[in-house]
Amino acid sequence: MSEKKKEEILSFWLGNRHIQFSRDEVESDPQLKADLEHLWEQNLTNPIQFFCPHGDFKYGTDCGFELVSSQYYINDDVKTFYMNVSPNQVGKTCHAIVKKVLRIVPNDKTWPLFKDNGIYCRPWEGPKTLVVLGYDKGQIIDVLWPELQKWIPDEELGEYKSFANGGTKSPAWQYNPRVNLKCGSRIIFLTYEMKPSVCAGVKAKEVLADEQMPLAFFNELDQRGRTLGGINWDVSFTPHRVAGRADTGAESWLYDMWMGKNTRGHDIGRFRITVDEVPDHIYSKEQKELAYRQWIEIPRQTGDEEAIREGEARYYGLFQRPQGLFYPEVQPDIHFIDWGFEDIKDKAVTFYRSIDYGYANPTACGYWAVFSTGEYFLYDLYYVRAMDAIPHAKAIIERSGNKLIENKKFLDKVTQIEYKTFTEEFSAVRFKQTWLDWHCFKQQGGAGQSISFFFNVGGLKVSPSTKLDQEQRAQALRSFLRIDPNRRHLVTGEKGAPRMYISKRCEKWIWEWERLVFESRRVSDMSQNQKETHVDKNDHAIDQTEYMACSGARYIPDFVEKQIVLKPLNKSTGY
User: Which domains does the chain have, with CATH numbers?
Assistant: First the structure.
């Protein structure tokens, strides 16, 4: 029991309930004194019974999914992989540990946690194994084990309870530490410093991974848990980039899980505690203000882009984007809009398409609308690999909502190959022009014909994209992405807007942008000044965007194009 103004006030917290009495009042009432001493003893030996979670339902603007409340997070038994992605010092590890403790020890329905704080009292299902993973042994010993000791009732810990509460034994940290509880459950500690093969033979129903777990540990444990009916995962972490680990922040496998891009066979639950949701008696108002100044205010004042991104991770719990983003002009809350074709089909727009072709790599086709006010809007994206040009043409047209009309067969007199040819019928959307990477008008796609030839045979009338190099294309695109303080936003109407917008439904575009960084010159092993080009990887949706930015596309009122029946003549272009 802590004392404030020692001669006057006795004060302590039970969850979010503040117990406070004057010393004179306590000393004059023997029953009150006994009750307070009992509560204080219970708070020391079994504080989980008073635990009061914090964190409400909210919308995850960074992932597009609902983020559950703290009560829902602790109670839910449906989702098999819960991600607690939160800022520093808001209680993310504490909530994860409380959730796991309630699953491995018997619950008492008389605890205030169940009666007053919205948490479900679980029927005892028998002993379970909990695996706890941390960065290194130091984190396990100094952070995770004390937090577990705090929330596991002393009766269950026995000789493993804290020394302050009379404990006499510590886990065997020098070996592979295990802790057996009175109820029969056990806790196994592992660290990311170990080889993933250390998981061999470990079977657990419950796993708590603190901070950003390497994928290899997930794969090893998840596979071994299948014979138990699957693992209930809880991963709690702040999504900043960890020095020396390229698989952290927005380049991690956990980010793909958070975004729903690769769930690895699990039903994903998402939870985040914000700084303002933490009670002031846990995280004081003054310290919250200092944290905001350190992580948000000062980096913005200095214009330090890397510090800004790290601050967003540590203060807001947003995944830290890679250093040296190639298009830092993009601001997700401004450039990404929740519109699609249905929102623009009746507006004053002209439609275009832009294609970056690949076979081993994806073929990306952007569906664009150019507004009468000059804005470019990517409202849909086709993104498919391992197909030839003719089936791509068919799929791109069908995704447009248009139909294919079969024409007469065409005989190539040189190769004596006969082709079925098609024409696009603009039954849903009339496109003014479709640009294709100009290299496709030179590269052979088979039988001595260019790739563009086969797109045209398939019914997709294509034109060569710009021949500008990548650095010049990037400059053109940046001019569309920059914020003009006098331009009004396409959706909100507020001043301060770009000339280009991306639909939130174009997930692959956003995925590429988050990973596209400057290419570095290298001398020996030392990274030198950045080039003005980006790395040649995962850039196909971005490439077609650059073609569009260089196209000179404009709004054409009442555009109508005469239907053209394709008659391939030229071996290079297919016209």
Answer: 2-45 (no CATH), 53-277 (3.40.50.300), 334-549 (3.30.420.280)
